[in-house]
Specification:
A hairpin with a 6-residue loop joins strand 4 and strand 5. Helix content is 0%, strand content 77%. It is mainly beta and 210 residues long. It is built from no helices and eleven strands.
Length: 210
């Protein structure tokens, strides 16, 4: 199967937090994250093309926090995510969707100077939501979903100007729990421990300091 990304818009705006040398305790920062992707699949066999599902992913995560001292910052993000898959078997449009609300406190310890440095960021994420399936004009509620995760991510920061820096997270050491529960109280539970320290897991963010 050949997959084409037909639309990819990713904006990580003030995704991380940083530290400024000699910044007084109590200094505040605000920011957030926004990402939107649409992916479609096609099978091409000879002269026959079969359209596959279309997957849409949206995440909105505003955040705010404060500096406890020159090296330690804490904050939290509160946001929303939606993942959906659209299929048209037999000409009938079917959309399966997952809607989640997230609460994600975090803390970061940084070492460096006014230009660049290193950091370690610890975070905890809780997610609450559910699933729905829409077939034609009929909507059916699916299982409720609960997620929990915590982890530690190393990274580097570099100041582009006094109030603006670019951060790069690389790798993750952490644990994630995913649970589905239906109306009969039947559950599906998946847990995962992750250890990733490679270039494929690098994320970038821009930070603005108040």
């Amino acid at each position: 199967m050949k997959t084409k990304i037909v639309l990819f818009i990713g904006l990580f705006f003030f995704l991380s937090i940083g530290t400024i040398a000699q910044l007084p305790a109590g200094g505040m920062f605000v920011g957030g994250a926004l990402s939107f992707t649409v992916t479609s699949d096609k099978d091409v066999i000879g002269n026959t093309t079969t359209e596959g599902p279309t997957r849409t992913n949206l995440t909105i995560m505003p955040l705010a926090g404060m500096f406890l001292d020159d090296n330690l910052s804490v904050g939290a993000g509160i946001g929303f995510s939606r993942n959906s898959v659209k299929r048209t078997p037999g000409g009938t449009e079917i959309v399966d969707s997952q809607n989640m609300f997230h609460v994600a406190p975090f803390a970061r310890y940084s070492v460096g100077d006014d230009q660049a440095g290193l950091f370690a960021q610890a975070g905890f994420d809780l997610g609450f939501g559910g699933t729905k399936s829409k077939s034609g004009g009929t909507v059916t509620d699916g299982p409720g979903i609960f997620t929990m995760g915590f982890g530690l991510r190393p990274g580097v920061y570099y100041y582009l100007m006094p109030n603006l820096s670019i951060d790069a997270h690389f790798g993750l050491i952490g644990y994630n729990l995913y649970r589905e529960k239906d109306a009969n109280d039947d559950k599906y539970i998946e847990s995962r421990f992750s250890l990733r320290l490679d270039a494929r897991s690098v994320n970038f963010g821009l930070i603005y300091y108040l």
